[in-house]
Amino acid sequence: MEQPLLDVRHLRTVYMTDAGLVRAVDDVSFDLRPGERLGVVGESGSGKSATAASIMGLIEPPGAVVGGQAWFKGRDLLDMAEDELSQIRGRDIAIIFQDPMTALDPVFTIGDQMVETLRAHLDVTRREAVEIAAQALADVHIPNPRRRLDDYPHQFSGGMRQRVVIAMALMCSPSLIIADEPTTALDVTTQAQVMDLMLGLADERGAAVMLIAHDLGVVAGFCETVQVMYAGKLVERSPVDDVYRRPGHPYTRGLLDSVSHLGADGDRRLRSIPGMPPSLLDPPPGCRFHPRCDYAADVCRAIEPEPVPVGGERLVACHFAKDLTATLETSR
Amino acid sequence: MTATHPTTADQTLAPDVVLGVRGLVKRYPVRQGSFIRRTVGWVEAVSGIDFEVRRGTTMSLVGESGCGKSTTARCVVGLVGADAGSILFRPPDGPVIDVARADGEHLRTLRRQVQIVFQDPFASLNPRMTVAQIVAEPLVVHGIGDRHSRNERVRELLELVGLAPRHAGRRPAQLSGGQQQRVGIARALALDPSLVVLDEPVSALDVSVQAQILNLLSDLQERLGLTYLFIAHDLSVVHHVSDDVAVMYLGRIVEQGPRDTVFSRPRHPYTQALLSAAPVPDPEVERVRTRIILEGDLPSPSNPPSGCRFRTRCPVPGAEEMCASEVPALTELEPGHRVACHHPQDAADATFLV
What was the pLDDT predicted at B349? Predict the structure, then answer.
């Protein structure tokens, strides 16, 4: 078995709020192979973004990582000093956020920002850094890359800015790219353009990708493995075809059934999940999904299910996982 | 129906048509200067569009940011005035009203009969008011009923949109996004409208909640005989809710027709690109379909390309002089299916679809 590139064990992240302690990420474990494309899906408050931010050391007060490890190339990212971590961030691990302006400084030119990043991480001269930066912009199809280095972020359109961020993220050849809703703010044709570029470049360089998305379609098109989160817990992790064909967890199936999609009969009634996600201040006992689940039994109300293997490379956190994986099909 | 309408459109609507938009133009000034604001140019957000919505059906305007779909919605409900063209509305009883020229009794009728639901439910609800006050407000404004009958109506409306009586005393911040949107819908229905404009009503919601609201909207349409003008960027949502669809690009309609025709036999290269780019939650489909990747970025709406506005990004090889010099007219290629392109594409080649 190949060594995982990233191995997250029992991650716990909490937020201290006036109303009490919010368990945003509650005992989440998973790993990522070199070059693997993992999609992390879930609705707001599921803990998908908090998981990524925890790994990257980007949780700020009133939040805190209170437990677990995140092994990356043999070292625990959660147990690292900030200056060490900032060396890894941007070089070995690149991060792309939904809003490109979180990564770009409005008062410096794109060129200055790229050269500064390059020189902080790689042993290159200014002239060499300019070369690399111009090539990186050309790789994301920015016309006249050398001239555009002198432009400020506001002189680029939204789609172009996200391409610039991708160019910056990839220019140090990271082995892991964490992309948190990278195309959510973009129009659909621009989204296709940006995803294509990002994943093409990641493939070329053999980088693994952890793509956090709420859009099940984006994940279906671009990932090999899918991890589903609900109320701070990992409920399922499976190869992409299994997740969409034979979802292992009732929540996964509910999520798939509730999206309208182009291939389906447009007049079909959507099967929505009743109720709403629980408050993380006071999550239900046992399985957190049980109040909304068609299959809930006494055991679900009493005992929290752990993710267990259910055949192949699948992990499902449901007391009835074995029976359900054999029978659950999506309603389309 | 002919391909283009003159701006002085006739004021008649077919009996089953509730809303007829003809030659609608809306411009916004571009202003410069911090002290003395001068108008230095104009952005034409909507450049002469025509469409109709039949009674009891859903017509969707779909397109990406800057295509003019939301501006059109605002013109229809009278939140902004149109610069040219007409917006004709047929109340359930009484003569057709031109939204742009309505006053007095006609304006009152419009304000009761045409309602809007906004994208961001929280921003569209007054945080200081209770749910009951919010839902009752249109009744108070229009002087309908007394306190007792209004309370009764609020209870009825809350039940209609799937909220419990205990929600009546809460404020918007105490509700989830889906519940807030239900309040927005209840408020829109308070005056018993016949046309509801839904401006991205589910875009801000999580998918499982989206499904609840989409189902609610379709139940309400059936129960109350509502006519919907639906504004959205999400093609799968549009596919789910619509009877008819118009695809917009930079202020113009590029293709329109019955839903199944537009989605299964798109002829405009932009519609094809849009459909091919829409993610489908099915890995097998995603692996075999062809994605048309558009190069470049959306041109500035203040300086749109001459002729066909899509020509600068059009993937069809050999776009000609004609594309640059002549605005392509919306032309009927098959009954009810209109396309504005000098080189409509073959629908049989549409292998990128699902």
Answer: 54
